[in-house]
Specification:
CATH class: Mainly Beta
CATH topology: Lipocalin
Radius of gyration: 17 Å
Helix content: 10-25%
Number of strands: 8
Strand order of the largest sheet: 1-2-3-4-5-6-7-8
Number of domains: 1
CATH architecture: Beta Barrel
Oligomer: single chain
Order of helices and strands: HEEEEEEEE
Largest sheet: 8 strands, antiparallel, barrel
Strand content: over 45%
Number of helices: 1
Shape: globular
């Protein structure tokens, strides 16, 4: 009976994690150092997925402005900036939207996917066949 109860509890926890999907808060990872850079809130609006920077983590400057940006993002705070725009669900991916890199001020096509085996979020930015993939960690 005890083993049966443990199985039910574990099964319920697994369902809870899976049902969260890509939505929620995620820690981004610096490509060079592996340090956590910021927390991005992935949310749904009008059937599309967006991501907004809600916290900048130490040792990075919390008041950083987007100096390499152009247009309406030029010299605006990175904190509060929407960096993932208009992703649509297609099979196990969310794609056909963009991701914005505030470090270089460029926007890339974007595809994200929840990695079921690790619980990490695979985030891929790309131009044509050139791409960069990061794995973000769910923020508790």
């Amino acid at each position: 009976m005890k083993n049966y109860m443990c199985f039910i509890v574990l099964y319920c926890l697994l369902l809870t994690v899976q049902s969260q999907g890509v939505l929620g808060q995620w820690k981004t990872v610096d490509d060079e150092t592996g340090a956590h850079k910021c927390i991005v809130d992935i949310y749904e609006e009008n059937g599309k997925i967006f991501g907004k920077v809600i916290e900048i983590l130490e040792p990075f400057d919390k008041n950083t402005l987007c100096q390499n940006c152009e247009g309406d993002k030029k010299d605006k705070p990175i904190l509060g900036m929407v960096i993932i725009n208009e992703l649509e669900k297609q099979d196990e991916y969310y794609k056909n939207g963009t991701i914005f890199d505030a470090e270089n001020g460029k926007e890339y096509k974007c595809r994200i996917k929840l990695m079921e085996d690790t619980g990490k979020l695979q985030v891929r930015g790309y131009i044509s066949f050139l791409y960069l993939t990061q794995y973000w960690i769910r923020h508790q």
